[in-house]
Amino acid sequence: MCSVYPREWPEGMARASGQGACGVESRATDAGVAWGVAPHFLDSDWRFTTEAAISIVNSVQRRCPPNGRVAYLGCPTVAMWHAALCGDIDFVLLDRGHPGIHGLLEAGRIPARRFRPYDVCGDVPADLCGAFDMVVVDPPWYLEYIGRFWLRSLQLLRRSGWLSIVEYPGYRRDKQIAIDSLWRTMVGGMKHVTREESLSVSYDVPAFEQSWGGEVGFITGSRSAYRATSLTTWKVAKRGGGVDEGFFRAAVALPVRCWSSGRKVDIGGGHYLRCVCDPSVLLKGVAVRPHMWKGLRRPGIAELDAIIGWSTRNTVLMATRDARPLVHSTKDLGELCRGFELRCRSRAA
Ligand SMILES: C[S@@+](CC[C@H](N)C(=O)[O-])C[C@H]1O[C@@H](n2cnc3c(N)ncnc32)[C@H](O)[C@@H]1O
């Protein structure tokens, strides 16, 4: 079992785990700044704070049996800390992937053999079905994803095991009600479910919200935590070892709207612009105007049609057909965005 914890760990957590110390400690302490690239909200890249990620690894370590196996579904920060702190517990990171994860792989923070690119819209790879003692899952906060992430987590688990689910932070009551209903469907299809633990977790404020002060509405509690929620660990046993048909149908009932495709344009300083459509097609005869997208609601179809690119600082480039074109190539788009970021930064300073 792992016995190494970073120096800056909050005292209470360290005491609770009975840690020791060894040579990889310095590797652990700087793992939190290893990403290299800023998160992009079109990638649903909401990263746990270091404290949250380490407390999750700690919880995994407390439960996972000797020779046990853990799957992190959509939890790259936790996988990174797992690699730094308890590499002797077998684990796999399953994720659709985004530039941040590729940064971690390139920096060696997550060993390449530990990452399996996987999109929850597709079936679980056969060799991973029923292969894990514990699955930790943090879905994007959209219903169609939450259903699919839970479904895939159950399929990854052995006949029984631990399911650690990050809960929706509860901003919208209608969504919370739908999530609760889905949860009841899932539990109804299982042989046994018991709640074992609940941990407080929160996220680092991403640049795309900080750029316009958008994080303020999501900072709560005495600890001033950003998007505070909990990770609840359940001991579950599957009925007949499989997934209930009713839950399966409920989990995939909502179609996934894909609007985050597109190429990545490097705009420097660890930031990037994601082109929603191919600019070489879109830019013919249109003008591009940059603006800040206030709020993180998903754009409607009409808005999306006009959006060309989105940056990690929440700069949105929109196309209009009624003015002189400003940008002609992907390179120009990068230049335009860089200039815009600089203006935003100097305004904020
Ligand atoms: C809310 S973030 C959770 C990250 C976690 N808080 C962490 O710091 O480790 C959601 C994660 O799900 C992944 N993801 C989004 N859509 C996915 C999909 N369709 N299939 C698999 N992974 C997906 C994203 O790449 C992202 O890593």
Series of H and E elements:
HHHEHEHEEHEHEHEEEHEEHEHEEH
State the end-to-end distance.
Answer: 46 Å
> Which stretches are low in confidence, meaning pLDDT under 50 for 5 or more residues running?
1-32
Share of helix among residues?
A: 25-40%
List how many beta strands DSSP finds. Answer: 14
Count of DSSP H/I helices? 12
CATH class call of the largest domain: Alpha Beta
Radius of gyration: 21 Å
Average pLDDT score: 83
Main beta sheet: strand number and arrangement?
A: 7 strands, mixed
Q: By helix and strand content, what is the structural category? A: alpha/beta
What best-fitting shape do the alpha-carbon axes yield? globular
Q: Strand percentage, roughly?
A: 15-25%
The quaternary structure here is single chain
Ions and ligands: S-adenosylmethionine
The CATH architecture of the largest domain is 3-Layer(aba) Sandwich
Q: Tell me the name of the CATH homologous superfamily of the largest domain.
A: Vaccinia Virus protein VP39
Instruction: Give me the CATH fold name of the largest domain.
Output: Rossmann fold
Number of domains: 2
Reading side by side through the largest sheet, how are the strands ordered?
3-2-1-4-5-9-6
Q: What can be said about this structure in brief?
A:
The protein is of the alpha/beta class. The chain contains twelve helices and 14 strands. The protein has helices spanning 11-17, 25-30, 50-63, 76-85, 99-106, 143-156, 173-188, 207-210, 245-251, 279-282, 301-306, 330-348, and strands spanning 69-73, 90-95, 115-117, 132-137, 157-166, 190-201, 219-220, 225-226, 229-238, 264-268, 271-275, 287-292, 307-311, 315-320.
